[in-house]
């Protein structure tokens, strides 16, 4: 039960905009799984966030199941943790509207990710502008009734989390204390996994160039090929220097994440790139193989997967409901909607 795990909840969302990659697994999924017995963990597939840019409906539905199956295969325990699909819990869009009426246009427009993603596009979906406010709803719904929330965030989400805090503070000031201010949980060192063929950019599941992206479901020979072809530099010595030597440092970061030891220490164990790359490939394959075996079993039984997701959705709705009801009441909406609460 919630109380036996203290009042802190940890909330993580995964956008089904592509196949999950090694950065998702090492920096977000594995730490979440490792922490789930110490902190009440809520993990959701952010399917509505995937609607903010051009998308293929069939692929979105397939990726939603795929991401859920990967989270389970990676060890997320659906009995201990809450695993759900964002759109299955209508409280998220319910709270979104209340928070859209609390945030301002200027605040949304200032988001760097909005400007980056909208830049050069002929048409920009309105939801791309407002999605950080949906993200606020995703988090704040679980930050009511005496519960703190921590949110693991990469550096690029820092501005969004600040907006979430600003909106929560404003709502509390205007309408009465409703939401606890969420805390960002910074990933440990080595947690930013870079693209193997372009190590100055983050490894991303939506990158159309896939040579440097290790997908969680890549077969072992593909993983090995991508790692062995990773861009390093002309200086064939192994040393950790993320700014000057991003390629080799990224390989050390990956190995450090898998082995749970500092990348700088690992650097001393290697004198050539070839041996380092071979060990990185072996280590990554050793992590992926059991996960892929479990994934195959889980993914082959969509009825059971849907049952797990439905149960998680009901549990999330029970946790979110009282917070949404309190927020609705404080902002002046009458209780008594049809079909909910
Ligand atoms: P997303 O892929 O945007 O749905 O992100 C899901 C989670 O994975 C977030 O916590 C991201 O910060 C994290 N993440 C995604 N890519 C990387 C990466 N290359 N290195 C570290 N963390 C990542």
Architecture blueprint of SSEs:
Elements: E1 8-14, H1 22-35, E2 40-45, H2 57-73, E3 82-85, H3 91-100, H4 105-109, H5 112-118, H6 126-140, E4 148-152, H7 158-175, E5 183-185, H8 220-228, H9 246-259, H10 263-267, H11 273-299, H12 302-331
Parallel strand pairs: 1-2, 1-4, 2-3, 4-5
Helix pairs in contact: 2-11, 3-6, 3-12, 6-7, 8-11, 9-11
Adenosine monophosphate (AMP) is lined by residues 14-15, 23-24, 27-28, 152, 154, 191-193, 202-203, 205.
In short:
With 341 residues, the chain is an alpha/beta fold. Helices cover 50% and strands 7% of the residues.
> What is the CATH domain class of the largest domain?
Alpha Beta
Strand content: 5-15%
Sequence of strands across the biggest β-sheet? 3-2-1-4-5
CATH superfamily of the largest domain: HUPs
Explain this structure.
This protein has helices at residues 22-35, 57-73, 91-100, 105-109, 112-118, 126-140, 158-175, 220-228, 246-259, 263-267, 273-299, 302-331; strands at residues 8-14, 40-45, 82-85, 148-152, 183-185. By secondary structure, the protein is an alpha/beta fold. It has 2 domains: 9-190 and 301-331, HUPs (Rossmann fold); 192-297, Tyrosyl-Transfer RNA Synthetase, CATH 1.10.240. Strands 3-2-1-4-5 form a 5-stranded parallel sheet, with helices on both faces. β1, α1 (22-35) and β2 form a beta-alpha-beta unit. α2 (57-73) crosses α11, α3 crosses α6 (126-140) and α9 (246-259) crosses α11 (273-299). The relative contact order is 0.15. The protein binds adenosine monophosphate (AMP). Residues 14-15, 23-24, 27-28, 152, 154, 191-193, 202-203, 205 line the site of adenosine monophosphate.
